[in-house]
Amino acid sequence: MPGCAVITCRARSTCLSKTKGGVSFHRFPKDPNIREIWIDATGRGDWIPTKTSTICSRHFTIHDYSTKKSGNKYLREGAVPRENIVRICSFKEASVSSSNASTPRKKKLKQIIFTKDTVIKRQRKQIKRIQAQNRRLKKKIFKMEDIINDLQSKFSIMELSRRIKQNSRKRKISLGE
Ligand SMILES: [Zn+2]
């Protein structure tokens, strides 16, 4: 995707370049919990990001960035998009509204549970997809095995007939014909 994954965002890598003081694009983090918050921020529901999916710098604050010695800015590890996003199901709101959590610790724990739950649901879907793929590949293997068996039997017939011919020729020679 050559642009920002946030559903309401129109930032495209082609229209604004980083060097022109425009927008920069950040790949989705590997940490499953943080990744989940990023996915949630896109507002795309059950959408799953690809390796090349990105979220643009419009959704991060200056505090999410650090500066290297070279002067280049980079997104801090663990940063999550909070700006200019539409959440279908916000982690914060969900945990606050559905909870009778009285203490910040309880609230935090509820939020963690909610995040993990969403991760599990998404991973289950991924598992199903992989299983279906697996079944398709197995079918392919069966077909291939059939072809191989077929070829092997054809080959052995050819080999057999070749030997028979050879033998009969030898016999003819030995009989002096
Ligand atoms: Zn964006």
Automatic annotation (TrEMBL):
What species was this sequence derived from?
Answer: Loxostege sticticalis
- Principal place of residence: nucleus
Question: Residue limits of the THAP-type domain?
Answer: 1-84
Which spans of this chain does the record mark as coiled coil? 120-154
Gene3D superfamilies attached here? THAP domain
Instruction: Give the PANTHER family listed for this entry.
Output: THAP DOMAIN-CONTAINING (PTHR46600), THAP DOMAIN-CONTAINING PROTEIN 1 (PTHR46600:SF1)
- On the tree of life, the source organism's domain of life is Eukaryota
Report the protein name in the record: THAP-type domain-containing protein
- Entries under Pfam families matching the protein: THAP
UniProt lists the family membership as follows: Belongs to the THAP1 family.
